[in-house]
Amino acid sequence: MSNSIGHNILHGSLIGPSVFFEHQSKIYSCGGTCSSGIPSLKVQATSQGRNLPISTNFYGKRLNLLKVKFPMMATRRFSFVARAVVATDPAAEHAGRFNLDGDIELQVEVTSSGSACKVEFRVTNSTDDRLVLHWGGLRDRKGKWVLPSRRPEGTKEYKNRALRTPFQRSSNGSSLKMEIDDPTLQAIEFLILNEGQNRWFKNNGENFHVKLPVKAELIQDASVPEDLVQIQAYLRWERKGKQMYTPEQEKAEYEAARTELLEEVARGTSIQELRARLLKGSDQSEVEEQCHPDSGGEIPNDLVQVQAYIRWEKAGKPNYSPDQQVREFEEARKELQMERDKGSSLDDIRKKIIKGDIKTKVSKQLEKKSYFTVERIQRKKRDFLQMLNKYAAEPMEEGVSMKPRTLTAVELFADAKEQDGGPTLNKKIFQLGDEQLLVLVTKPGGKTKVLLATDLKEPVILHWALSKKPKEWLVPPSGVLPQGSFALDKAAETEFTSISAGDPRYQVKFLEIQIQDDEFIGMPFVLLSAGTWIKDHGSDFYVDFSATPRAKQDAGDGRGTAKAILEKIASMEGEAQKSFMHRFNIAADLLDEAKDAGELGLSAIFVWMRFMATRQLIWNKNYNVKPREISKAQDRLTDSLQNIYSSLPQHREILRMIMSTVGRGGEGDVGQRIRDEILVIQRHNDCKGGMMEEWHQKLHNNTSPDDVVICQALIDYIKGDFDISVYWKTLNENGITKERLLGYDRAIHSEPNFRRDQKEGLLRDLGNYMRTLKAVHSGADLEAAVSNCMGYKAKGQGFMVGVHINPVPGLPSGFSELLEFVLEHVEDKKVDALLEGLLEARQELRPLLFQSHDRLKDLIFLDIALDSTVRTAIERGYEELSSAEPERIMYFIALVIENLALSSDDNEDLIYCLRGWNIAVDMLKNKNDHWALYAKSVLDRTRLSLASKAEWYQRLFQPSAEYLGSLLGVDQWAVNIFTEEIIRAGSAASLSSLLNRLDPVLRKTANLGSWQIISPVEALGCVVVVDELLSVQHKSYAQPTILVARHVKGEEEIPDGTVAVLTSDMPDVLSHVSVRARNSKVCFATCFDANILADLQAAAGKLLRLRPTSADIIYSVANEDALKGVSSINTQHDSSFPSMSLVKKKFAGRYAVSSEEFTNEMVGAKSRNISYLKGKVPSWVGVPTSVALPFGVFEKVLEVGLNKDVAGRMKDLKKVLKGGDVKVLEEIRKTVLKLAAPPELVQELKRKMQSSRMAWPGDESEKQWEKAWMAIKKVWASKWNERAYFSTRKLGLDHDYLCMAVLVQEVISADYAFVIHTINPSSRDSAEIYAEVVKGLGETLVGAYPGRALSFVCKKNDLSSPKVLGYPSKPIGLYIKRSIIFRSDSNGEDLEGYAGAGLYDSVPMDEEENVVLDYSTDPLIMDGNFRQSILSSIARAGSAIEELYGCPQDIEGVVKDGKIYVVQTRPQM
Length: 1469
Prior knowledge:
The protein has 1469 residues and is of the alpha+beta class. The radius of gyration is 42 Å and the shape is globular.
C-alpha cells in the first residue's frame, strides 16, 4: 500500500508536483495493538538542518510514524480539511491544478507583474465551448466576494454578487486571462459553469480558492515566530508528498514557508490568528497518532483503508493510478465523515464496515507492491495438443430395443377423443397418484366442449363452475348443466359416467360439458371421490378456454431418439413427481439402460433432468421426504454418473450436462439457472412480453451485475405500489440510467407494467431469482464447489450437523492458492486476471478428471463451476470490449475457445482454431501485413466449428425433447426452444458474440468489404428469403426472383426464375453452384455484414435492383413498372440458352481403352483433354496415367444375361420416372449398384491397366477388385443424381441420351489440390489468373465441404508475384493412400453452356480419410517463401495450359512434394 494512504496527505488536495509512491513487502504495525488488524500509517519527523522538525527518511513502503516534535512549541496531531490550496513549489509559487471531471483538468497560474498580478486559467481535455468563470475577490478568508473594477473583456455582473467571464476556445481546450491590481485582495474564489449543459464544476463541493501574491515591500515590514514557520514548513513537506530533501532544498522550503506566513501577516492576519489556525487550539505537549482514536477524534486511517477497499471492490477492482488512489482515499474519508456527521460513533462505523475477512483482504493489499491493482497469475506454457480429445460422435442408433410402454386407459381414451373432436384448445393429463385425470377442451362447430375422464376406481363427482375472469367461480347457466347435475351457490356438481370395454384396461369414467356462450374463458373445479376432495397441488384445478385452437401435438414416431427409454421415463413420471428422492432414484435405476443405448440413451436422461431443472415438471407432490433421503438419492445418482464418466470418456460432455442439472445440493449449474429461471418467472406470472421479455433477452445474451440492480428495482417497484418512479430511483441510485439500459446489446426499451393480481407471485419469484443472481455474481456456487474439494467443517443445524469434508487427495501443488486467487477476484469488473486464473485452474484440474478417483464427482462439479464462472465473467467483460483494440478482442476469443475445448469431447477443431488465434495475435504484434486476412480465416473457421457443435446438439437433443415433451405434456414453447436455450447458455454463445464484434474490424483492416462478389451480374427481382438453397433448388419461380439464402453448401442447382442468390454462407468461388451462377448469368454473392443481410431479409416481397461493383453490391427498391418487359433469364427453355442436344453414344465393342485410344466416340472431353496434355505440357508438370471404360459399356453390361433382373427393374423404374415421380431416382441408383461384372469386362480392363503400367486392384486381393467394381457402378449411378437429372430436364435434354464413360486414373496422394481459372471469374479480367488451393484431395474444394480454400490471383505478365486474397478456413482435409479413382466423363460435359462438370460423381476405390486440419504447421500458410513458390508454380501451369489450348481453361490438379500434377482440364465456362 502506498504512502498516499496517510491521512495528512489525503487531507490536502495537493496542487503541484505529482506524488510518487514506493513500496516494500514488510508491514509496520502501529505502536499498540490494532484491533482491526490493519496497520496504521505513521510518519516520524526529526530535526535536521536549521533544527527543522522535518525528517524525510522513509521507513518501509510508507512513513513509519506520524509524530512531530517542535522545539519551540507543544506537539499536536495535525488535521486539515481538503480544499484547493496554493502550490508550494517556489518556481511556481501560485500555480494550481484541479481535476474537474474524468480527464478534464483546470490549471491556474498566478504571477506578479509590477503593481498588478496576472491570473491565467486553462481547461484541458474538454470539448465544451461555453465555459464561464463565475468569480469574485476576497479581502479576508471568510468575507464576502468583492467585485474588482478591472475585469477581462466580456465580463458581466451577476446579481451584483459575482462576475461572469467567458473562456476563449482554443485548439487544446479553453483559456482565460485576467489582471488584478487591487492590493487589498488576498485571493480570488470562483466556480466554472458550462452554460450549454447548465452544469457547475466545483472543488470537492466547495469554491475554488487561489491566493494572490503580496507585494515585497509589505512583507518586509512583517515578522512571524519561528515555531509557526516550522509548523508551516512541515505542512508544506506533507502536502508535497514527504519527499527526500537535500539540505539546500530544506532551507528553500523553510524560507518558502516563512514567506507564506509573512504574506498573511502583511494582509492583516494577526500572529494569534495564525497560531490558532495552525494549532487549532491544541496545547498538548505531544500527541501520537493512535490506532483507534476516541469517538471524538478524526477518522482513523485504518477505517479509511477499509472503506477505500470496499469502494474498490464495489467498483470491480479497477487498476488505479497514484492520483486516482489519492482521490479514492479522500472519497472514502468523506463517506465516513458523513456517517460521523449523522451521529455515528467510530465504534459504530467500525462494526458496520469491518466484517468477515475484510481485514485480511486489506492487509493483503497493503503487502502488495501496488495498491488498488489486480495481480495476474503466471500461466504455465502449454502445448494445446496436450488437451486434445478425439472422441467423435458415434452414429446415432435409433429406436433402442426395449418393450414399448403400454398406454394407460386414460391416454387411449384421450387419443380416441382427440381424433374425433374439433380443433384442440387445451389438453392436460393430471397425475392423481397412480391414477390420471384427462381434461380436453375442443371447439367443434364453434362450440366449446370440455371432456373430462379418469381411471379412479371409486365414483367421482365434479364440483365446478365457469369463469369470465381467470379462476372466477360463477354458477353455470342451466342450459350448460349436463343431465343429472345439481346447481349450488356459485357452483354445480356433476357425477362422472362409467364406460367399460371388454378389456378392463380401458375402463374409465368421463363426462362432457358443452358451452355455447363465448364470454366464459375458463372452468375451475375440484373432484370428490370416496369422501376425499382432490385438488391440483392444494389449489383448484383450472382449465383455460381462451387458448388459440391448435393442432394435436404429435409425439411422432420417436425417430432419432432412444424411444423406449423415453417412454419408460414417461410411464414413471407420476412416481417421479412425488419428490426429488423419487426422481433421482428412478434416474439412477435407468442409467444402465441409458448407458447401453449410447449417447441417445444418455441424451434421454439429460432431456428429462433438464425439464425438471427448468421446472417444466413437478418437483414435489404432497410427499414428505427428509433432506438426508434426498441427499442419499442424489449421491446415488451422481455416483453412477461418475462411474460412467470414468468408463465411457466419449460421453463425458453429455454426462457433465446431466450433472449440471442435478448438482450436489439440487442447485445445479447456477449460471445456467439465470437463464432457466427467468423463463419460469415469465411463465408462472403471465409476463412474457414488454420489459420482462427484453430483460430475458438481455439475460440470455449477457448477464452482468446490473441484473441484480434491475431485479431489486422490480421488487421495489412492486412493493412501492407499482410506482414507476421507485423503479427508476433504485436504478439511478445504483448507476443504471435509461441510456445504460438502451446501451446493452439486447437493449431494454420498456418500463415494467404489471397487474396488481401478479404482485404476490412476482414478489415470491423475483425474491428467489435475486438469490440466484447474487449467487452467480458473487461466485457463491463456485465457492461451494471449491469447499467440497479443498475440505471444510460445518456446525450447522439439521442434517448438516457435524459435516466434515476432507480435502480431495492428490491435488496439484499450488492448486489451493490458485483457487483462492479465483475466489478473491470472482467479482472483478475487469475480468482478464480472473479468466486467466479460471482457465489455469481448469488446466491444472484436467488430468485428474481422466483418472479413477473416489472423489471424482467433486472434481467434476468443481470443473463445471469453473466453466460456469468463465461464462459469466466473459459476459461481464463483454461490454468493456466495445472500444477495445483487435489484439484484446482476439485475446478474449482465445480464452473462450480454450474454455470450450476443455468442456468438449471432440475438441480437435477447436484446438486448431485456438492455435490459429495465437498465431494471428503474434502476426499483429509483429506488424505482419497479412494479420487481418489470416485472422479472418481463423474467425470463419471458428464460426464453422460453432455451427457444427450447434448442429450436433440439435440432432442429439431436440428429437428427444420433442418426443418426451409430447409424452409429458410439457409446454410447447419450452420444447421448441429446448436446444436453442442450451446453446445460448454455453461458452459458444459468448464466443459467437465476440466473433461478431471482431469480424467488421478484420474486414475493414484487410480491405475485404462487406461482400464477396462471385458472379457480378446486375439483377432486378422480387426478394424471397429461404433457409437453404437446397430446399428450393428444383423450384420454378414465375417472376424474376432474388433469393436470400442462409445456407448454400456449394453443390446446389439454381432454381428456374432466379436472377440472384445472396447468402451469408461461404461457398468457394470455384464451387459447382458458383460456376452455375456465372454460366447462367445469375448474380451470386456472399454478404459478411449481418446488418446488411438483415436489411435484405426484411425486404422480402419487395422488388429490388442489384448493381454489383468489384467489392460491393448496391441495392435499391425498384418500382413495379420496372418489371414490365423483363423476364427471368434462368427459366426452362429460355431462348437465351443456346440450342443444344445430346447425341446418344453406342458401345464400340470394347470394354476398356488406353489413353492413346481416346476418341470423341469413345470418351468425353475430360479423358481426351488429359490424353492431349501428355508430352505437351512442360516437363515439370506431371500428368497421371489413365485408361477408360468407354461410352456404351454401362448399357452393354445391363444387357448381359447375368444382369437380366436388374435390367427389368431398371426398365420399370424409368417408366415411373418418365411419369414424373422423381422419388424413384434413389431406387434407380440402388438398382445400378446390383450389376454384376461380365468376365470380359474384367479381363479387358485388367489388360489395359497393366499395359499402361497401372496397378490392377485384383492383384492385391479379390476384395480390392470388388471395391473397384463398386466404385465404377457408383459413377454410372450418378447419372441419376437429383441434381444431374434436373439439370438435363431444365435444358430440355433427353436424359436417356446422356452417356457415361469412366476415366480411370492413379490417385496421387496429394499434399495440396487446386483449381485454376485462367480468367478471373469474379472480375472477368483476362490478364489475371484466379486459383484456389486446399490441403489434401480436391474433393473438399469442388464438393460440398464447409469453409473456404486459400485463394489467390496472379497477373499473367508477372507469374512470380501471386497475391493471396484469402487464407483457408476449411476444417477438413481428405487424404488417401496410393489408390485408383474412377471419374465420371459424360457426353453432357462436352456441351457448351451446359456446364455439366461437377454434376456427376468421381469415386476413389479406397475410402478417403477425413483429417482435421492444423494450419499452424502448414508451410503453405506459415512459410512465405514456400507459399510464393507453390502458388507461382500453380499459376505458371495454368498459363502454360491456356497457351497450349488457345482459350481460357478450368484446370484441376494437385501438388505432391512440390511437384505440380494436372488431373483434368476443360474450357472455362
